[in-house]
Design brief:
147 residues, alpha+beta, two-stranded antiparallel sheet, 2 helices, rod-shaped
Length: 147
């Protein structure tokens, strides 16, 4: 007994998967950007702690404005701990916290990438089923015309 498959149901599932894939791709991009920001923060702390004299600081991410500042303490840094909580920490503790944050982001990126791979595979399986259905319908139409 042949199993009846509704192509419209498959197409609806494929559209839902496409939407999930799109959201997941955006989420991965956000996580990747956050990880890059954490990495840059760690690099900046290392560079600042080993520098001497005045330092040029960007006042906005687009570099529309900068300032030259004197750094009074090159061993203490203010680090975001989460939930709008910041702490003034020594260099090593600040780097440790940022390193842990970077590791969590990397793990989240890996997990989301695996989910994306699984969804993409599922989408491709649905495509294959649709192609088989289309080929089957074409064969049936040819056989019907022969009769």
């Amino acid at each position: 007994m042949a199993v009846q498959v509704d192509p419209r149901a498959i197409l609806a599932q494929m559209q839902a998967i496409e939407a999930q894939i799109s959201r997941l791709q955006s989420f991965i991009a956000e996580l990747t950007q956050a990880r890059e920001n954490v990495s840059r923060s760690m690099e900046s702390i290392k560079a600042l702690s080993s520098s001497e004299g005045p330092v040029m600081v960007m006042l906005d991410p687009s570099m529309n404005s900068m300032a030259i500042v004197e750094v009074r303490d090159r061993e203490k840094f203010i680090v975001h701990l989460g939930l709008d909580v910041y702490a003034r920490l020594d260099k090593e503790k600040a780097l440790e916290i940022l390193d842990e944050k970077e590791a969590r982001l990397s793990k989240s990126i890996s997990e989301a990438t695996k989910q994306l791979k699984d969804l993409t595979s599922l989408y491709e399986q649905y495509q294959a089923v649709l192609q088989q259905l289309s080929a089957q319908q074409a064969r049936q139409a040819r056989e019907a015309r022969k009769q």
